[in-house]
Amino acid sequence: MLWNWHRDPDLGPLAEAWGAAAAAGTGSVFQGFRFARHWAACFADAVEFKIAWSAAPPAVVPMIVRDGVAALLGDGLFDYVDLIGPPGRDVPPPCGAPARFTGVPAASPHARFWGAMAAEPFSAAPVRAPGPDPAQTHPRAARRFEAAGVELRLAECERERLRLLEWLLGQKAQACGAANVLGEREQRWLRAMVEHEPRDCELWSLSRRGETMAGLLCWRSRGVRYGYTIAYDARWASLSPGVLVLFAVLRHTMKEGRSFNFLTGEQAYKLRFATHCERLLRYRNAQ
User: Fold this and answer.
1) What strands, in cross-sheet order, belong to the sheet with 276-284?
2) Is residue 266 part of a domain?
3) CATH code: domain of residue 203
4) Which residues pair with 176 in a beta bridge?
5) Residues 32 and 87 in one domain
6) What does the alpha-carbon distance between residue 153 and residue 150 come to, in Å, rounded to a whole number?
7) What is the DSSP string of 260-273?
8) Structural domain includes residue 267
9) Is the CB of residue 200 less than 8 Å from the CB of residue 193?
10) In the chain, N or C: fewer CB atoms in 10 Å?
11) Residues 152, 87: one domain?
12) What secondary structure does DSSP assign to 54-87, as a single string?
């Protein structure tokens, strides 16, 4: 297998090979080219890029090095990281540097690569498989939603989407005190995705009498909706608006015949709606 190396934060030259590898593989939405392109632009001054790629067969090993430690592109923001492309290919070694890969699915098909490193549990991602309307399986949540007199809305235009993102970031900043949970580069990546990738990114709001109570940012793929970040106005805490917006989006997801991935973290509000969990691992090399 002939490997090429890409070391520039501009991933444009890799678009065709990356797209072909993603289409041939079984990775999550986070392994798509559009996610990677914006991440690389936002973190260009913070990491070295050592991306190995092959056109035939299509494959990408999206390696980066930050502070002397090798990781995969998206480290710290992508809940799922992995190699991109079909399984069973020979892959290059991880740069000869200390390496830490966080968020690799335990069921990754790239066992030949990951099997050479030490694994440890990292987290789990609760998932709700396609199935019946959550109103049938969680009638209490359905009654609370109806009694609250709230409205679920999907932000459509760019201005509305960006406004709702800033509302989400602001609510999270208030909940966490003086500092936001996301740094400057991370916020820049979210804004780029929301502004430029409406086919991948959804912003949902829950409102009452025109006032926003809660918001949910999701990533969307053909068969899966991923709940990435959620926030609510603490003044409405007694109504559990975060749970209500999640319940409403879950209903929408089940009607579409998709699964819903709650992403990392086994919080109670996720587990109550999930049907199973996907295990995620952290791998380290022997450096």
Assistant:
1) 100-105, 276-284, 118-128, 259-261, 224-232, 211-220, 201-208, 151-154
2) no
3) 3.40.630.30
4) none
5) yes
6) 10
7) EE--S---HHHHTT
8) no
9) yes
10) N
11) no
12) ETTTTEEE-EEEETTEEEETTTTT-S----BS-S
Residue 264 lies in a domain: no
Based on the domain organization, do 220 and 250 belong to the same domain?
A: yes
In 55-210, where do the E strands start and end?
A: 59-61, 63-66, 69-72, 100-105, 118-128, 151-154, 201-208
Range of the domain at 32: 4-121
Same domain, 49 and 110: yes
Enter the tokens of residue 224.
Answer: 């899966």
Answering whether pTM is above 0.85, one says: yes
Q: Are residues 98 and 141 in the same domain?
A: no
| Pair 18, 60: CB distance under 8 Å | yes
Beta bridge partners of 201: 219
Q: Which two three-digit tokens encode residue 38? A: 């914006």
CB 227 within 8 A of CB 246: yes
User: Is residue 284 situated within a structural domain?
Assistant: no
Domain shared by 101 and 205, yes or no: no
Buried b / exposed e along 231-255 (16+ C-beta atoms within 10 A): bbbeebeebbbbbbbbbbbbbbbbe
| pLDDT tens, the chain, 287 aa long | 689 999 999 999 999 999 999 999 999 999 999 999 999 999 999 999 999 999 988 999 999 999 999 999 999 999 999 999 998 766 665 666 789 999 999 999 998 889 889 999 999 999 999 999 999 999 999 999 999 999 999 999 999 999 999 999 999 888 776 555 688 999 999 999 999 999 999 999 999 988 999 999 999 999 999 999 999 999 999 999 999 999 999 999 999 999 999 999 999 999 999 999 999 999 998 65
Question: Does residue 74 sit in the same domain as residue 180?
Answer: no
Same domain? 167 vs 222: yes
Of the three residues 102, 121, 140, the one that is the final residue of a domain is 121
What is the Cβ-side half-sphere exposure of residue 4, based on CA atoms within 13 angstroms? 14
Query: How many CB atoms are located within 10 Å of the residue 129 CB?
Result: 11
